[in-house]
Amino acid sequence: MSVKGKKVLHMDRNSYYGGDSASITPLEDLYKRFSLPGSPPDSMGKGRDWNVDLIPKFLMANGQLVRMLLITQVTRYLDFKVIEGSFVYKKGSIYKVPSTETEALASSLMGIFEKRRFRKFLVFVANFDENDPKTMEGVDPKKTPMRDVYKKFDLGQDVVDFTGHALALYRTDDYLDQPCIDTINRIKLYSESLARYGKSPYLYPLYGLGELPQGFARLSAIYGGTYMLNKPIEEIIIENGKVVGVKSEGEIARCKQLICDPSYLMDKAKKVGQVIRVICIMSHPIKSTSDANSCQIIIPQNQVNRKHDIYVCMISYAHNVAAQGKYVAIVSTTVETNEPEKEIKPALDLLEPIEQKFVSISDMYDPTDMGTESQVFISRSYDATTHFETTCDDIKDIYRRMTGTDFDFAEMERKQNDIFGDAADQ
To answer: What pTM value is reported for the model?
Structure first.
């Protein structure tokens, strides 16, 4: 919005950047936040060595957020590391996710005949071009459901599980009856992201996800945006059904449009579920990951008789988020029962021994007011996924509702080049 020439004031009731998805430092603050008695033991090292994400997410190397970061040049303020591996859970064990033809043939996830069929499927996906009927092999991208594409290649249930959930990154099996083009594009995104760096398709910023909002705050400042932390929001003022300002500490900041998360306007949002997240501190990498310093593990819902997948994100001291020799694994899933902690037991079992756990259960909200009349634009709550693709979809949706036009990556790129080009000339 700053880049588009709008005057932007960002007010945050917290003393840190990132809201719900902040990185908490020092470690003592994490203990306080979760109301744990006492302070961290000496074995945890210095409190300042820790930057612990409250909501774990990785960036797809070829995904929408990385494109936004590159186009806006926020990457100047950030350093990234590639996540070392992506794994999938099958019958109590974890396996590396095969996403190339070579890996498919070498994978112990499948029998020899299944490997060949899966390899053919990957070749089909890689070559698929919705503008070239020759590449489609009789598949209609807008009409053929994904279930039929799997049948066409005679792929078994386990292969369908890891393809849909660990490659296409769906949270449930609802996608099976949808047109196949979205799934094909998701698998392509995974493969293209993997091709950029080789070990996995995921990136992670050094010092934690809290660096991302700080980077955007700096970018906004270049374009005249103002950030205010520690600013209590007393009232959002709406007159004749339309937002006119925000009251804080007795003063009113006038505005024509307002963006906020659901917690600021609960009467304009509805609860759509809950997410459980468990932050686990360990002194060891996860078993069967080749001692990786970082990884993602997806437990497809069918493997544990659930409706939603369980996710494990692990990072470590190698990313400047933990003391030397320490690892942070965060487990998350959509809550389905009255005993959320029991639901994630299969994931916690993979992490043992765990030194300290921090458990949170958060409500998820969707906006009920799309902002057409009120000009209030409310984001959706963070879901249980371990990547930013769904969050970027929400950002683009808000942008469309606010401006009446789609977010245009190419136009953004041109504007940035013009501005930074002019700056360089001067």
So the answer is: 0.90
